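Deviation from plan, reported transparently: pyridoxal-5'-phosphate complex.
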Amino acid sequence: MTDFAATRAFFHLPEGITYLDGNSLGPLPKSVPARLEEMLRAEWGEMLITGWNAAGWMAAPARIGDRIAHLIGAAPGTVVLGDTLSIKVYQALAAAVKMQPGRRVILSDSGNFPSDLYMAEGLIGALGAGHELRIVAPQEVSAAITDEIAVLMLTEVDYRTGRRHDMAALSAKARAAGVLTIWDLAHSAGALPVDVAGVGADFAVGCTYKYLNSGPGGPAFIYVAPEHAERVRPALSGWLGHAAPFAFEERYRPGTGIERMRVGTPPVMQIAALDAALEVWGIADIHDVRARSVALSERFIAGVEARCPDLTLGSPRDAAHRGSQVAFRHPEGYAIMQALIARGVIGDFRAPDTLRFGITPLYIGEAEIDRAVEALDEVLATRAWDMAEYKIRARVT
Ligand SMILES: *Cc1c(COP(=O)(O)O)cnc(C)c1O
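Because the crystal trials were delayed, the predicted structure below was used instead.
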């Protein structure tokens, strides 16, 4: 059984802050500053360019990728780090579309994160081959999987509502129809058990700065099923995805397996931060994390519904259909969230009316949940949100 007091002690949590936004940006692991200092001074500072070999910088995207693989049910050697999630979505989609020459439809849903959909639009434009991005409601995805579809591209957990797709059922249905799947695990990796190999996902992608706590700008990851890894033709054919980067050949030849999904120079410092952050999984079990996330979410929903009748639950009521966040809706959601933040309870807001609360048991517990319920109750009961200063929209909401 995971010792959640020990996992909490792994993180720096600012005094007086109740942090319910780890689904957007995980907090700082206490070990990261020293790890970065060491990387900067002993590696960059002393080794200079020899660090690429001597400190293993060049191998890090695959080596640390293996640690992510372990968390998402992937075999070693099938995950690599680099770039941002938007880039990894583009790569996966470009590779999948190319493997389906006879089909023209990319199927996604209206619960997907806009960047994933925008990337699909951009790819379709670049290909100029008459592909269609078909966006259906989340509950209509299953029925829309037909043999007309080339690729099914979904995010398992909806960034706004926390609604969770049935990854196993949809993957099986897609496979039976000859449809390739791309699963975005941005709100899954580190939040709940994932089994990409078990469900037969063809591609998976995700970011590391949310539930994996690598810090702002941390690298994304990409998984390619072993059966496809030697077949995919990377659209972003950068030199570090080449079979022999230091042969400096004029023509591109894809690297071995997952290595070909690398593009350019890896973010070595951010990978070092991620490596240190992943140490928490040495003492945390993802199944325990999930069970506690469900219990804390239920406590939060029950508390808010008992005390804040003006808020409407925006997440599925059944925990099995929810990820690790809870959404409540209110027309003045933005101002309410600003008032909450002013009281030290940090969640976030997603237009048009959603208050979002990340439930992250590695470092929050019952006390934080109860404190958030209390602050919400106070803000609503006293209309504390109804102040001009809480209605000014910042650049990041
Ligand atoms: C957070 C998130 C992103 C963000 O992409 P970046 O390129 O890392 O900014 C993309 N897709 C989904 C589903 C997300 O949740």
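The chain is about 35% helix and 15% strand. We consider this an acceptable substitute for the interim report.
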